[in-house]
UniProtKB/TrEMBL annotation:
Protein name: ATP-dependent dethiobiotin synthetase BioD
Keyword hit for Transport: no
Gene3D superfamilies reported for this sequence: P-loop containing nucleotide triphosphate hydrolases
Subcellular location field: Cytoplasm
Annotated catalysed reactions: (7R,8S)-7,8-diammoniononanoate + CO2 + ATP = (4R,5S)-dethiobiotin + ADP + phosphate + 3 H(+)
Phylogenetic classification of the source organism: Bacteria, Pseudomonadati, Pseudomonadota, Gammaproteobacteria, Moraxellales
GO molecular function: ATP binding; dethiobiotin synthase activity; magnesium ion binding; protein homodimerization activity
PANTHER family noted in UniProt: DETHIOBIOTIN SYNTHETASE
Pathway participation: Cofactor biosynthesis; biotin biosynthesis; biotin from 7,8-diaminononanoate: step 1/2
Keyword check for Magnesium: yes
Biological source species: Aquirhabdus parva
EC number: 6.3.3.3
Known cofactor(s): Mg(2+)
């Protein structure tokens, strides 16, 4: 059995060419992952590309970036935010799409301390809300690392998500150990009072046994109480538009008659 067929509805059958455009609702999703480097930014870009294809206006926000690049003028640049911007149809100010930019590629609480700053969830949320005042059908807010990554001595990325009160999309990089990480994260999201709008699988490690990968995805589908929105394969050369064929947005199936 092909897990891809059984778990994920074919996006092209639910939404595109010969169906009316889906109902446009303003939707904001918080993107978290089972870890850092699991594909959150790529998934965010794919969701934005998918939205654009459906005719939805959309943009992405990266509230905290730890590990910024430096541009020629010496300014810190969030590559995650700039990548999302590339697939956005709504242009928002760079300061709004990446309000907190830290140089060190480490946990935000430590990166902030190294930069002589103290982050506060309520202030970060204020900055995200400023971005959310821009109109769009879809806004993607990408976290940093996983759900309980510290932002200061007391708070974590989850406090930002909790204050935002937006549904969460969980990105799961398939590898040995991801079942535990995914189930714990889903449990924590629920414990924090937020809903899991869906989950996306990324297959970034090419040396895995295909049958075991399928069994892991099936195991996730049997345990996570949310829809699988897509299974994204490894691409030698990243092609976001091609990946947008393999994903669907929560609510995409709400077609207007
Ligand atoms: N489908 C894919 N095929 C090939 N490479 C991919 C794919 N998805 C992601 N990658 C690569 O995997 C790496 C991690 O992806 P990404 O930057 O999206 O992770 P992340 O979860 O956003 O990390 P962070 O926690 O730093 O924000 C990147 O180099 C990215 O280009
Ligand atoms: C630097 C990295 N790419 C992310 N921006 C931050 C990841 C923090 C992970 C912290 C941890 O869980 O140990
Ligand atoms: Mg990222």
């Amino acid at each position: 059995m092909c897990v891809t067929d059984s778990v994920v509805p074919n996006p092209s059958s639910s939404s595109s060419s010969n169906h009316p455009a889906p109902l446009k609702l303003r939707q904001v999703f918080f993107i978290t992952g089972t870890d850092t480097e699991v594909g959150k930014t790529v998934v965010s870009c794919v969701l934005l590309a998918r939205a654009k294809r459906l005719g939805w206006s959309a943009f992405g926000v990266k509230p905290i970036t730890a590990g910024c690049a430096t541009d020629t003028a010496g300014k810190l640049v969030s590559e995650d935010a700039e990548n999302m911007h590339r697939y956005s149809s709504v242009d928002i100010d760079p300061m709004l799409r990446a309000p907190i930019r830290l140089p060190d590629p480490i946990s935000p609480h430590l990166a902030a301390a190294a930069a002589g700053q103290v982050l506060r969830a309520d202030r970060v949320v204020g900055q995200v809300r400023a971005a959310l005042s821009t109109r769009a059908d879809l806004v993607i807010v990408e976290g940093a690392g996983g759900w309980r990554v510290p932002i200061n001595a007391r708070e974590t990325l989850a406090d930002i998500a909790k204050q935002l009160q937006k549904p969460v999309i969980l990105v799961i990089r398939i590898r040995l150990g991801c079942l535990n990480h995914a189930l714990l994260t889903a449990e924590a999201i629920q414990h924090d009072g937020l809903s899991l709008a869906g989950w996306v699988v990324t297959i970034l490690d090419t040396d895995q046994d295909a049958d075991y990968v399928s069994a892991q995805i099936q195991s996730l589908a049997e345990r996570l109480r949310a829809p699988c929105l897509g299974i994204l394969p490894f691409q030698e050369t990243l092609d976001i538009e091609a990946l947008a064929d393999l994903i669907r947005l929560p609510g995409e199936e709400i077609a207007v008659g």
